[in-house]
Design goal:
Blueprint (H helix, E strand, L loop, with lengths): L5 H24 L9 E8 L7 E8 L6 E3 L6 E3 L4 E5 L10 E3 L5 E2 L5 E2 L5 E4 L2 E2 L7 E4 L4 E6 L2 E7 L2 E3 L7 E2 L5 E2 L5 E2 L7 E3 L1 E3 L5 H35 L5
Antiparallel strand pairs: 1-2, 3-19, 4-18, 5-6, 5-9, 5-14, 7-8, 9-10, 11-12, 12-13, 14-17, 15-16
Amino acid sequence: MPRPTGLTSAAGALRYWERRQELVANNLANVSTDGFKGDRGFARLVGAGTAGESAAVQSAVDLTAGSLRETRNPLDVALQSEGFFVVRPAGAQDATAERWTRAGSFQLDADRRLVAADGSAVLGTSGPITVPPNTTVAVGPDGTVRASGPGGDRVIAQLRVERAPAGTSLAHDGATRFVPPAARQSVAPADRRVRQGFLEESNVTPVGALVDMIAVQRAYASVQKAVTTMDAVRGLAANELGKPV
């Protein structure tokens, strides 16, 4: 098997930086998306010592918490501890369709069910949560949902909050949704800190994303320059070497 040349290695480097650029661009596009978690790219050498040697890009979700922003909307909730809220798309019936999110901008639909912005049902430990008519909602730090109205105050649900085992990689499903791993774990109520009237902002900052983008563009330009130089050398060798003197 032929060994890699400078040009093939440079081509692999260009592909690597193009993928990094895609990740950074997606992060930058979501700096204002509540509950968004940025992707971080890193290189891994594959096919070491062979013609396939190149730097492949792998990515992982940065689960660092974003800042909390107070909205005073009683249906906005944020997690100030680890874990994710669990939602289920409308019409889905089983757990395979469930998704995780930290985007807690919830609302009530026409049937007074607590839903996410896209209509997905917000799940409690007993399933979708329905708020009785003419009541107001209060969410406790442990995720307990209470309804207060003419009939008094009572607990109507307990939010499901789940986490992944340490070392588990999560996959995005849309900007703020994640596919739960098979080994999902429930976060005990005592370990939660749910904040009502707050939203968690994106954990990507505009300045950080711009710095990343500039660094990627500079690296890409450097590799392009190296390709141009190597191509010129190859052209010179092909056209000039062997000429009679």
